[in-house]
């Protein structure tokens, strides 16, 4: 069914809001790797350390992630938009390019990602047409010298790291 006017207003509004670009991965009991691109990644709690990623219930990866015990969030770097596109493409082998390797907790990780978070599945919560994957962070790997990719206005952009910040939060 095509989106109605209210849904179009909502998606138009949310497209204006910058978000991170992550590739969320897991591996099932048969050793098959699964992954999808998401901009719905959010930090949820510090104690315990929890993050969320929302996954469309119609996605081909939905069953694999909602039954997984562990998953990994790979926060993509500014020069990894090709990886973002591939992990959002239906009907292709998203792992064929070989840019993921087995990393923390045996999960498929992207070595050049800005941040990798290996998570144990804490809960899966209903979120309308999406399922909210809540992960408890077990391992954090952080790169300090790479800028994260940003998705805004339906485009991938690089943060203007050399421009002075408007204001510091602290
Ligand atoms: C920048 C970007 C962000 C996305 N964010 C999400 C997201 O947060 N949650 C989600 O379920 N799908 C998201 N998608 C779509 C998925 O990556 C994927 O295309 C969709 O799940 C269809 O995949 P399927 O062929 O496995 O069904 C996003 C796609 C792009 C390009």
From TrEMBL:
Where are the coiled-coil regions?
Answer: none
Looking up SMART domains in the UniProt record yields:
Flavin_Reduct
All residue ranges annotated as the Flavin reductase like domain in the record: 14-158
Any Pfam family the entry gives: Flavin_Reduct
User: What domain of life?
Assistant: Bacteria
The record, for InterPro entries, names:
Flavin_Rdtase-like_dom (IPR002563), NADH-dep_flavin_reductase (IPR050268), Split_barrel_FMN-bd (IPR012349)
Q: Give UniProt keywords alphabetically.
A: Oxidoreductase
Name of this protein: Flavin reductase family protein
Q: Which organism is it from?
A: Streptomyces cynarae
């Amino acid at each position: 069914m095509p989106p109605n006017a209210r849904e179009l207003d909502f998606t138009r509004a949310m497209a204006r809001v910058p978000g991170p670009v992550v590739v969320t991965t897991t591996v099932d009991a048969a050793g098959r790797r699964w992954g999808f691109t998401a901009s719905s990644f959010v930090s949820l709690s510090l104690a315990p350390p929890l993050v969320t990623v929302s996954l469309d219930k119609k996605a081909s990866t939905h069953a694999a992630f909602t039954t997984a015990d562990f998953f990994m969030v790979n926060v993509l770097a500014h020069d990894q938009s090709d990886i973002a596109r591939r992990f959002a493409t239906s009907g292709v082998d998203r792992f064929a390019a070989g840019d993921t390797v087995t990393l923390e907790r045996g999960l498929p990780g992207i070595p050049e990602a800005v941040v990798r978070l290996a998570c144990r599945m804490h809960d899966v919560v209903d979120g309308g047409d999406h399922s909210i994957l809540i992960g408890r962070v077990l391992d954090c790997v952080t790169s300090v010298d790479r800028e994260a990719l940003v998705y805004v206005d339906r485009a991938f952009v690089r943060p203007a790291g050399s421009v002075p910040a408007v204001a510091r939060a602290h």
